[in-house]
Design goal:
This protein is mainly alpha-helical. The chain has two domains: 153 residues, Orthogonal Bundle (Hypothetical protein af1432); 91 residues, no CATH class. The chain is 63% helix and 3% strand. It has a two-stranded antiparallel sheet. Strand 1 and strand 2 form a beta hairpin. It is globular. The two termini are 23 Å apart.
């Protein structure tokens, strides 16, 4: 992930020396967002229109999702998971825009993106009975298609529609394209961070539920639950890399991949919230107690603490 903007590079470039992560450039990244926030300007009349539009978007979303529920308890449980996730991501997004000091108009657009970022998930699960894109369909592109076919974004300006679509398209990719800049980069990074905040919550919550009673666990498990993990996945994390989905073999690999998401977090405010809620420590509690996993834990937590510490010095 490499672009022309200094704030993108600031989050992307770091070097690994043992268990210590040092940024190559730009500890001032979040300040850059605050300084450039006013580049995104709307008139007062447009802002009022957008507030009303956001309210109508929420009503449309509720009605749209309600149409997918039926008699299948397994399907309903998985649909509910994504419905609740989308609404919580909206709240996480509000936290981030406040922390970054963004303008009201930016907040409204960011919340719209959060509301719609997984709108393709409902049709995906009803049709394919899975949320795994490579086994079914790209949920981000499906979501954009849903928004286009329903014309729900009608009434917004062309550039607003484009920002929403691009943020949805890129929110689930392994990394952002290097060509992004300006408002497009900002909103793409915001939704990726807001999404991760809630996914960590979901992962920790359902790990607890699954451990308590695996037989009654009603959600999809993508991998077999074995007391092992793949060495290549561990190696990626220890080297400061996000691992590839293709390397995953067992459920513990998925947990390790999710822990490695911290390398793709854009804002220190996101890491601060993740740490405060204890998500990382809790997920580590579901992994085998080995020397390798302990080293992974030390690496991940050191990285998070360093990012937060560097932000305090801005």
């Amino acid at each position: 992930m490499r672009g022309n903007d200094s704030y993108e590079m600031a989050f992307a470039d770091y070097t690994v020396k043992g268990n210590v992560f040092e940024y190559a450039i730009g500890f001032f990244a979040e300040s850059c967002y605050k300084l450039t926030a006013k580049k995104f300007v709307f008139g007062a009349k447009q802002g009022i229109m957008r507030q009303r539009k956001l309210k109508s978007f929420k009503k449309w979303f509720n009605d749209y999702v309600a149409g997918f529920y039926g008699d299948d308890k397994y399907v309903n449980a998985n649909l509910k998971l994504k419905e609740q996730h989308s609404l919580r991501v909206c709240k996480e997004m509000l936290y981030l825009v406040k922390e970054l000091g963004l303008e009201k108009e930016q907040r409204l657009l960011a919340e719209t993106i959060a509301l719609f970022h997984d709108v393709g998930r409902f049709k995906q699960f009803v049709r394919y009975k899975t949320y795994t894109d490579h086994k079914s369909i790209d949920h981000s592109l499906l979501g954009i298609k849903v928004l286009q076919e329903t014309n729900v974004l009608d009434g917004l300006q062309r550039n607003e529609k484009q920002l929403i679509r691009k943020a949805i398209e890129y929110h689930g990719q392994k990394e952002l394209p290097g060509r992004l800049d300006g408002d497009c980069l900002l909103f793409c990074q915001l939704i990726r961070d807001a999404d991760k905040l809630d996914v960590y919550y979901v992962v920790a919550r359902y790990c607890r539920q699954y451990r308590r009673n695996p037989a009654k666990f009603s959600l999809e498990l993508e991998f077999p639950d074995k007391p092992t993990y793949t060495p290549a996945v561990v190696e990626d994390i220890l080297k400061g890399r996000r691992t590839s989905y293709s390397k995953l073999r067992v459920l513990n690999d998925m947990r390790l991949l999710q822990l490695g998401w911290v390398y793709d977090v854009n804002f220190a405010a996101t890491l601060k919230r993740i740490k405060k809620r204890g998500f990382l420590q809790e997920i580590f509690g579901f992994l085998p107690e080995t020397k390798e996993i302990e080293k992974v834990k030390e690496t991940i937590l050191s990285y998070v603490n360093l990012r937060i510490k560097k932000k305090r010095k801005l």
